[in-house]
Amino acid sequence: MSDLNAQAVAKYRTNFLKEVEERVEEGEWVKMCMQCGVCSGSCPLGPYWAHPPQEIFMMIRAGRRDEVLTSDSMWMCTSCYNCIVRCPRKLPITHIMHGLANYAHRLGLAPKNQPTRVFATLFWNNLIRTGRVNELKLSLALYFKDGFKQGIQNALNMQKTGLGLMKAKRLNPFELFSGHGCKDKKGIAAMLKKAREIEASRKHFAN
Amino acid sequence: MAKKEYAFYPGCSSQSKASASNYLTSVNSMCKTLDIKLTEIPDWNCCGASIGYAEGGELPRHVMNARNFALAEQHLPGQQVVATCAACWLGARETKERLDASAQLMADTNEALKEAGLHYKAEVEIRHMVEVLIEDFGYDALGKPVVKPLGGLKIAGYVGCQTNRPFGIAGESFENPMYLDKLVETLGAEPVANYEQKVTCCGGALAFSETEKSQAQIKNIVESAYDQGADLIVTPCPLCQANVEIYQEQINKRYGTKFNMPVTYYSQLMSVAYGGSTKDAGLDGQLIRAPKLEEIAKK
Amino acid sequence: MAEEKKVAAYICQGCGIGERLDTANLAKVAQKEGRVNLVREHAILCNAEGVKMIRDDIANEGVTHVAVVACSRRAKTEAFSFPEVALARANIREGVIWVRPDTDEARETTQEMADDYVRMVCAELKAMKLPAGNPDAGHSRTLLVVGGGVSGMTSALAASQAGYSVVLVEKTGQLGGWAANLHKRMPAHEPFKDPQDTGVSDMIEAIAAASDIKVYLNATVAQTSGAPGRFKVSIATESGATTEEDIGAIVQATGFSLYDASKLSDLGVGSSANVVDQAGLEKLAKAAAAANAPIRRPSDGAPVKNVVFVQCAGQRDASGTHLPYCSGHCCNTSIKQAMYFKDANPEIDTTVIFTDLRTPGNGEDFYRSAQRKEVTFTKGRVSRVEATGNTCKVNFHDLILDDQNASIADVDLVVLATGQVPNSGVNIDLPAEAGADEEGQKVVSILNLSYRQGKDLPQLKWGFTDSHFICFPYETRRTGIYACGPVRRPMDIVQAMEDATGATMKAIQAIENAALGRAAHPRAGDLSFPRVRIEGCTQCKRCTVECPFGAIDEDEKRYPVFNEGRCRRCGTCMGACPVRVISFENYSVDTVGQQIKAVDVPDEFSEKPRILLLACENDAYPALDMAALNRIQSSAFVRAVPVRCLGSVNTIWVTDALNSGYDGVMLMGCKHGDDYQCHFVKGSELATYRMSKIDDTLKQLGLEPERVATYEVAITDIERVPQLINDYAAKIEEIGLSPMKGF
């Protein structure tokens, strides 16, 4: 058990709803779900969720902490916002799902090697390096996430597409070495460090 | 009409030689005709996109967007921020609404911005280019500069998700927004009337991580355009454009289909209709070329 | 009326009638064939000049019978209102020109239609009399309210405020009814967030302060006789004495009882003292409030820390064991009761287990408020409540996670949301000697009506007291008697108060109409009433049995005794009477029979069939008008006659029509069955039944069964009604013209 997780378990004991309300983005909305299921029926990847949002809300209220936080479900969110606009109770469901995934990831409970988790992590780390996304490095990092050999295979699969994009001037091989970026990289790094500190304190990750 | 000026937030994908560089090319051409002056926010940064949530968390994401706001306020005072990318617009607007709603979040954000020597005064307005076109110009004004009407083209207006939900374009419904169809009509082309997959999700960032599931979505989007006799698909979103265009080849392999449906931006249609060349409209940047549109451009 | 009959016909040329029809010919038909005394044409009859022309003739020419040949009888009713004369309308606008094409080809048949309607109106008018009003009018302006709960008290106060005196009869020793047992009620005002005071004591005070409300406690109704405006009600009091009151109208507000929880042993009733119904929880909450202490569990008095509410306990049961219906209020009531706990101590675990949370009215806001207070709502079906010492274990099927073995342990208190059972009187549809429910408990009559048709109001499904569900809530099949509150359907306090107010307004209308000798709803203000030529009566009892409103009693010789005040003027008795001795002054076997005879039936070589359409004036006829308004065309061979209700159709009209060469007869009435839409409850059903018996007659005449067709239509069937007509006309063409022509 990660330290952060152990600390959370000690702090909230059986009250998972309270934990979610305090620590998960828009978590205070969870109690307002009325179990109609419109979110689950509106999700483009709905069939692939082990527990669609409706169930996740129910499970949070029933205190099924491990099942929720180790679930693959929230990682199926494509950020299409269908659930948000259709929810009759106006729950910000997309954000709650993002928040839960982020929290599970932070606690180290999210499934390892979950592809969206991996990609999302690569993406953020890629963009904070220079302040902007380096598409080539991001793609390559994704291809090589399962090792060198698989990476070559993945890259070959997309080779034709990649060459096409290069020809269309929509992919730049030199991004590998230089590429776009913000000038004030230092300021961005400092600013993000501070933001993480503040967030940790607001959400009681420290105590 | 007097020149209109905006602070421009192009976003990562619209940079030169990035995946939506042709979007930027066509936007520049379109803006020239409409006498719109876009000034890039100096040293703008990534919005974090939706997928940034997992590692980024809440406050760091808002701080990234607020940095852009603060830079715009400082260097381009009084100008509205205009984004062309759906995700940039959504991410920025989300941050703005959250900060406006919470004094605490605003204070925390400024505390972090201070580390970069910045301060956000909460004065910016965030808009998508489509909003600028519809609200600041209107369909009639957009129709006036048309010199090469796109007659004979049948176009499926693929709105997708992020210009449509959760904020959307004012006055449009989430389930059947009409603005792309109206724009297509304004340019002299025929919109597909019953495009079932108009607001279907293409999978977004999950096109990279859940390829099979996303490609099933994309297959429906393209198939429905074919079913309705469309010559091409038009979209306002760089990720929609990239996903729907790029993955047709893999979908063909996976499903044995023979998709070869061009997917363009609304700005490319406008550039051509306003007399722009293939190059002006960024049509040379298509992975799947749009021959009928190029023909009109070459006329 | 001894005066001489003088009949005048007025033919309008407005709204395109003049262009489409030869009105001079219509005038000729009225004069020559209708043999009226006076005919006038006018360019726009409904304008001030046209109306003045008619009024002048009434005043100066002594006209006693007026035929207005213009638009539908449903149009321009204010302009064409001449209460001092008998009035009949021929509908040549909606009925003729608006449903026919304006073509040379159609001109002849269109004119024939209009000619026929002129013939018909003249014939009808001559058979009519100006109605004189009920001679047996009653003048009591006192309302009897039976039941002293929230519904009854609301009714009494509403009547008192409107200036009517009230007699309020309550069987227990105090007012307040069910609501008096509540700790608090669900909120009735914005922001619908917290339970509020019941308001019962304020109501009791207001009643005590009202000098025109006479309250009988520990009292019941021993007998009710008479009719609206002149009911005689004897009230039995505790002492055994009875008092007689003169009553104008009656509101029955006898409320409900809770479903017997002892039948719910699976849910822990009997095995644990900590399982209560909603009434039990109110008692605990009241006791706690009085002691300014937390709510305690009954078994050992320990404060409740964990409470579970079980919705639909013994309700919505498809197995037939318990109540099959939803009682409507119980979700909101459980939400309210959950707040008793959360408002006192947010740390108390409070769970509501529901299958479908139903929060009518503003309950949705109340529900959200409970969610904010962190009441947990769990979608599931409780299978079993087990007693475990001083706590219980609630086992349920979690319907969201599909977990059959979900459970909540260490529950201090389980509250069962059981349903409402109406406090109706005896079921008059059961044999009189029964008089007991299935448990053998004696059911006591509430109104003790001395009516031929039984002691109490009729009952609907599941024992709820009568009301006209689709069209007129509170109205029952006993004129002047109105049911309100949970006795007629399950409801909460807000609904019961609205219900009681509505029923009181209806009762006041009945009082006022009765005093003027007029009909109550739905023919409010009608002065006609059934007249019987008693010397022709064969004592067959059909009228007394079939009257949907219990208006007809029998005397000792088994002749019918009409109580005009109870009558709704539907004419069902007239339709029932085999010897045709029942009639109204302005609506009779003759007024319709003469219209049927007046129609010119062309011979069998003309290829012009004639179809009689008898259309209910409440739904079918308006639908025809609206179809015409939309210019939907229909056959030129149909002649429509509006009837008060299909129940008033006497089979002689149908057989006469067929005998005189009509090719078919269509009857259009309202939907019948459990969810009937008939204003008069049974009329359309009776007509359908009577027409099913006409087959033999048709056979004797050598006619096809298709020559008589009955339809259920709704007022909204604007496209369907003309379609039915055209389909039927095509059918007649297919089977050929009637062989009965020219006999």
Distance between the termini of chain A: 17 Å
> What general form of chain A does the structure show?
globular
Give the percentage of residues in beta strands of chain B. 5-15%
In N-to-C order, the SSE pattern of chain B is EHEHHEHHEHHEHEHHEHHEHH
Q: Compute the separation of the termini of chain B in Å.
A: 28 Å
Reported by name, the CATH topology of the largest domain in chain B is: Rossmann fold
Estimate the strand proportion of chain A: under 5%
Count, helices of chain B: 14
Largest interface: A-B, 64 and 67 residues
Describe the fold and architecture.
- Chain A has helices spanning 3-12, 16-23, 38-42, 53-61, 65-69, 82-86, 93-107, 115-130, 135-143, 148-157, 159-167, 185-202.
- With 207 residues, chain A is an all-alpha fold.
- Chain A is globular and about 55 Å long.
- The radius of gyration of chain B is 19 Å and the shape is globular.
- In chain B, α1 (21-34) links the parallel β1 (4-9) and β2 (36-40).
- By secondary structure, chain B is α/β, with parallel strands linked by helices.
- Chain B has two domains: 4-129, Glutathione S-transferase Yfyf (Class Pi), Chain A, domain 2, CATH 1.20.1050.140; 147-298, 3-Layer(aba) Sandwich (Rossmann fold).
- By secondary structure, chain C is of the alpha/beta class.
- The model of chain C has no long low-confidence stretch (mean pLDDT 94).
- The chains are: A mainly alpha (207), B alpha/beta (299), C alpha/beta (743).
- Chains A and C meet through α4 of A and α9 and β16 of C.
Question: Mind sketching the topology for me?
Answer:
The complex is a heterotrimer of chains A (207), B (299) and C (743).
Chain A: H1 3-12, H2 16-23, H3 38-42, H4 53-61, H5 65-69, H6 82-86, H7 93-107, H8 115-130, H9 135-143, H10 148-157, H11 159-167, H12 185-202
Chain B: E1 4-9, H1 21-34, E2 36-40, H2 53-56, H3 59-75, E3 81-83, H4 86-101, H5 103-113, E4 126-128, H6 129-137, H7 139-143, E5 154-157, H8 179-186, E6 190-191, H9 206-209, H10 211-227, E7 232-235, H11 238-246, H12 248-255, E8 263-265, H13 266-273, H14 291-298
Parallel strand pairs in B: 1-2, 1-3, 3-4, 5-6, 5-7, 7-8
Chain C: E1 7-12, H1 17-20, H2 23-32, E2 38-42, H3 48-61, E3 65-70, E4 86-91, H4 104-126, E5 142-146, H5 150-161, E6 165-169, H6 200-209, E7 213-216, E8 220-225, E9 231-236, E10 242-247, E11 249-252, E12 256-258, E13 275-277, H7 278-291, E14 306-310, H8 330-344, E15 349-354, H9 363-372, E16 376-388, E17 391-398, E18 403-411, E19 413-416, E20 420-422, E21 481-483, H10 493-515, E22 531-532, H11 542-546, E23 552-554, E24 560-562, H12 572-576, E25 582-583, H13 589-598, E26 611-616, H14 620-629, E27 638-643, H15 651-659, E28 664-669, H16 683-692, H17 695-701, E29 708-712, H18 720-735
Parallel strand pairs in C: 1-2, 1-3, 3-4, 5-6, 5-11, 6-7, 11-21, 13-19, 14-15, 14-19, 15-16, 26-27, 26-28, 28-29
Antiparallel strand pairs in C: 8-9, 9-10, 12-20, 16-17, 17-18, 22-25, 23-24
